[in-house]
């Protein structure tokens, strides 16, 4: 958890929003239900005394659409979830997962570290076929002058978030996008971090030729490490921030495998 000294140093400090806005035209993974927001009641449909009227909406979405947190029930291997939970038994019933649901994820208040790979390589965004290795992350840690500790949240900037307003480029299923590879996953797991996230839609390097997500398997199912996807890390990069207080509040969706989130970075004094 975040230590008291870090909390004290952030009082009154700037806050950076790390989430993209949710809308129907944002980039979305085709394998998940699309985001839909519809006004179910509009102003003027009904009136109360003194002209009072109200509106409300219906929202349809997946827990893995937009900026979100992957829960530990999201990935299985040979029928087993993290902790060797039986996937078939865990998902039996009409209300989602019987264990490892998002209601079990406590509010996240931890030290955050940014590894800005795009900035360190002097580019707006990494090439679509760039696989970030353990060596790459170790070098980024050293160049950033930060030391990743157990329990941290490690955010990796590829620069891909700068393409958010161009969904066809951001989610290009023909060429894929950059991200950590299996060796990077092993390196992160060895540091015993709590969670890691990136500014791409699948966190890891996606190769459309295979469609396989080995980093998800290693970190979520193997190591019990949460993943954050579709982060907006552009402002954090411009401020050249490397360390911050990271706060993220997943919705307590009972039985869900993921949750939309609005994470923030609170900049520490002198950051």
Give the arrangement of secondary structure elements:
Elements: H1 4-9, E1 15-17, E2 36-41, E3 56-60, E4 68-70, H2 87-90, E5 108-116, H3 117-120, E6 131-132, H4 134-144, E7 153-157, H5 167-170, E8 179-180, H6 182-190, E9 195-198, H7 214-222, E10 226-229, H8 234-238, E11 243-248, E12 258-260, E13 264-267
Parallel strand pairs: 5-7, 6-8, 7-9, 9-10
Antiparallel strand pairs: 1-13, 2-3, 4-10, 4-12, 5-11, 11-13
Helix pairs in contact: 4-6, 6-7
Sum up the structure in keywords.
271 residues; alpha/beta; Glucose Oxidase, domain 1; 9-stranded mixed sheet; two-stranded antiparallel ribbon; 13 strands; 19% helix; globular
Report the strand count: 13
CATH topology: Glucose Oxidase, domain 1
Classify the helix fraction into a percent range: 10-25%
Would you tell me the overall average pLDDT? 94
Main structural class? alpha/beta
> Which architecture per CATH?
3-Layer(bba) Sandwich
Whole-Å distance between the termini? 19 Å
Largest sheet: 9 strands, mixed
Percentage of residues in DSSP E strands: 15-25%
- Please write the string of helix (H) and strand (E) elements: HEEEEHEHEHEHEHEHEHEEE
Which term fits the overall shape?
A: globular
For the largest sheet, list the strands in their spatial order: 1-13-11-5-7-9-10-4-12
Low-confidence stretches: none
Give the helix tally.
8
Q: Radius of gyration in whole Å, from Cα? A: 19 Å
